[in-house]
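Repro case for the chain-ordering regression, as requested:
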Amino acid sequence: MTVAAIPQAGERAEFRTCTATGLKVDLAAERLIIANAVAAVVFLLIGGIAALLISLTRWQVIHLLPADWFYRLLTAHGFDMLVAWIVFFEVAGLYFGGAIMLNARLVQPKLAWLAYILMIVGAVMVNGIVLAGKADVMFTAYVPLKAHPLFYVGVILFAVGALLALGIFFATVIVAKVEGRYEGSLPLVVYGLVTAAIIATYTLLSGALAFVPALFWSMDLIEYYNPAFFRNLFWSFGHPAQQINLAAMVAIWYGLAAITVGAVPINEKLSRLAFILYILFINLGSAHHLLVDPGPSFAWKVTNTSYAMYLAVLGSMIHAFSIPAAVEVALRRRGHTRGLFEWLRKAPWKEPGFAALVVSMFVFGWIGGVTGVTIGTEQINMLAHNTLRIPGHFHATVVGGTTLAFMGFTYYVIPLIFRRELKFKTWATWQPYIYGLGMALVAVGFVAAGIQGVSRRHWDITFAQAPFQTPVPGTVSLAMAVFGIGALIAIVGGIMYLVIVLASVFTGAKIEPRQATLMIDPPPAMGYLSDKEEHNRKLQPHGTWVIVIIFLMFFAAYYLSNWWLLGRLWIVR
Amino acid sequence: MIAPPRIWWKPLGLYERRWLLIAFVWSIFLTAMMPLWFFLGRQNVPATTYRVEPADFQQRVMAFTEQYQVDTLNGIPVVEPPPGSDVYLLARQWQWYPVLKLKKGETYRLHISSVDVLHGFSIQPLNMNFMVVPGYDYVLTLTPTTSGEYAVVCNEFCGIGHHVMISKILVTE
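-- result from build under test --
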């Protein structure tokens, strides 16, 4: 390990050279990455305990918790998973991408610690006030359902901290360029992270716009806060917050493909175009939540819900092709060129990062993406709004997709940044499959129940204590059982992840890693394709082409069958 | 992971060009379906909305209930309004008021609003869902096309009694 002190622009930065990649690692950035990643995992643990308890309540056969604790823990689960776990991990990812991947120093580490403290205080405050029973308002906190002022203060502090971290990331990337720390254009992974950070900036500003008046209203300083207006502002925060995850996850996908099979993007222009489409259009998706609200017109809803002609969906469909294609081409270059799918058979299935990549892409695209576009269609939303189809969709995207990709990425961060040997490597191989299977069952169970009208955020679908009862059909019980079993499998996968991470961080041997991969030899560094390779028929992504065509047929079948379902409803206008 | 070569904006490969084209056509199709259904389909999201004071709305619901009440069900009035008329349904923590009795094949202007927090208007097992927002009178021009007993459940979290908020719509031949 060599440490060089390089005074630059008045700030001192200390570096070590990574023994596996040759990158220079800023030690201040490294410490911040470790702190943020640990915080992320702690909130994943809290959110996971809540997940276990609310799943066992929602699964009507067990019905564990009383109503108040179900709603309380559902609120905590939403915040800890959708905000705390993911944003802490993303901040760690941004510091990694902005400083370490660019060989650069992190600017103003002290401010980055301030951001960290703000986020910790905010997240602890939200958890405390929710668990104290003073904020049973769900993650969405729709006005005029009132929470204790500290709930809003906590959310605002967290958002301010995250905004500060974003500013530090942007400054780091610019300073890296100015100081000539890297050659040429940004690597695609960092480019994707910049995309995520740009989306995050306007997302968090919208969050502040929604929550600051809500704070004043909860303190009785404002008498009236228009609930429809709050919904519009809240979803300008709530939905794009998930698009930050999307962009960060896609960046991590490219990263995992590079680490595990040595994939290089087959066409940088196309992949970068897809990220630009996200920045330009994805925020319009906020309107998906207002499709059956009183107020907005048909034209407003359609323009927004379609992301101006589904151009953000086009971005995702580009990645859905270009990432598997990059993997296929990389494996074909190593000689696996027979037939359509030899490359798939020879792929490193036991490498945790590759397993996480494949499972994450599958659950995200085939379940999350397809169901999301369908329920986000203006008229079809009447069939889906506030039913379990909504959590079905976002458990496939945010959990089976983003969370799983982040989990897979952690297995590489531990040796490279924490410099601890990863323990239980065989577990790490199995974990993405187990977690992915569980989450897929959760999503499918939810969607199947939601199609039959079961509502989300509901303690008792039998209405046992209500003036009227409604029979629960056997098909609903079956769907909820699929969900319940899936939840338990996913919990097992989650526990495996936490055990691997905590055991490695606290008891793993201190190492200077020689390679990035865990279970296989590192893939040969191949660089970008030469002109001759680009025209070699054997190196074309034939297999990926077949996969994406089957995907599109599945997509079309699901989408069109929903129009058929819609046509059977009562006439309404 | 690595920085791309100096010139990275290369022309697309054959498969990439084809996929981009197919995906773009699919996006256009997805977009076109919504206006197409708007003009040709029979189920469209209502847009008619009026601002209303919650207290005024409650008064209208009470007057409407008194005028057309025909029965009582589990302590809640059952109301049978004439076809084609304005029908009112009130959402409040944690009850729908009143129970509605409608005729199959007839069209009603159903006004829904809330006097306290947000609620979700969900007709089950038919599975039609709309938001109920206090301060806004949302008008659904609704024609039941099937008869029977339907549940109205609340599917937007509205407080601790959320899961007992249920009522009925009875549709007769």
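Ordering looks correct now. The longest helix of chain A spans residues 227-261.
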